[in-house]
Design brief:
Elements lengths: L7 H10 L3 H28 L5 H45 L3 H7 L2 H14 L3 E4 L11 E5 L2 E8 L8 H14 L3 E6 L5 H9 L3 E5 L1 H8 L10
Parallel strand pairs: 3-4, 4-5
Antiparallel strand pairs: 1-2, 2-3
């Protein structure tokens, strides 16, 4: 699913929420101080240009900087709060899936929460994880999990009823081959078709299919799969 944003401020906010909460606090302080200094410099320049044609341009710039000195810090602080909330939700969801009612907890997650859960799972397995965001054009790669010198492409399918078919697996394998990835993980909250499993057995690419039940067992520590071979 595409996750593009057209508004620059929305895009900045979204990127900041992916960082640790303290990064937003630091960005708020630095942007506020920097823009406050710019406003003071522009005030001095505007006074020196009193009565000239350049005064209007300085006034416009000063107005923009004056507005941004409050808007940007507020945006960064809001992103910091959102980041802290996301981290809390990650841990809460992970703990819920690891609990006795893990199957029900897994089904209640949104597609984004499921993707975040899978990312957290791979991080706890020792991988560094990059969130790419699946799109139809790139084979639906949601995460890139790296460990050592190897990169693995991960696709997350939060399908409660429909089973993941061979087309999904074939497409991400094509992307993995084109990018030179070490292997592929396809993770679903449901299950896979027999055709998809046969494709895995006949393919040379290192592919691991993880069902919702397997993911829950691995999160609970009852299964040791999802480790690089």
């Amino acid at each position: 699913m595409a996750r593009g944003r057209n508004n620059p401020l929305e895009s900045l906010f979204d990127r900041m929420t992916q960082l640790p909460w303290w990064a937003g606090v630091i960005a708020a302080l630095l942007s506020g101080l920097t823009l406050h200094g710019i406003v003071r410099v522009l005030d001095q320049g505007n006074a020196e240009l009193s009565g000239t044609s350049g005064q209007a341009a300085f006034a416009a710039l000063r107005g923009l900087a004056a507005g941004l000195q409050f808007l940007l810090p507020a945006l960064f602080l809001a992103a910091a709060a959102a980041s802290a909330w996301v981290i809390y939700r990650h841990h809460r969801n992970y703990a819920a899936v690891a609990g006795e009612r893990g199957h029900a907890a897994l089904e209640l997650l949104s597609w984004r929460e499921f993707e975040n859960l899978v990312g957290e799972f791979f991080r706890r397995k020792g991988f560094s994880v990059e969130q790419r965001g699946g799109r139809e054009a790139d084979g639906g790669v949601d995460l890139v999990a790296s460990i050592g010198g190897d990169r693995y492409l991960v696709q997350c399918k939060h399908w409660r009823v429909q089973r993941v078919g061979v087309k999904v697996v074939r497409e991400i394998c094509g992307v993995a081959a084109a990018e030179g990835a070490a292997g592929v993980f396809v993770v679903t909250s449901g299950s896979f078709t027999d055709e998809a499993r046969r494709f895995v057995e006949e393919n040379r690419i290192d592919i691991e299919l993880i069902t919702g039940e397997q993911l829950r067992r691995m999160i609970r520590g009852l299964d040791t799969a999802a480790q690089p071979q």
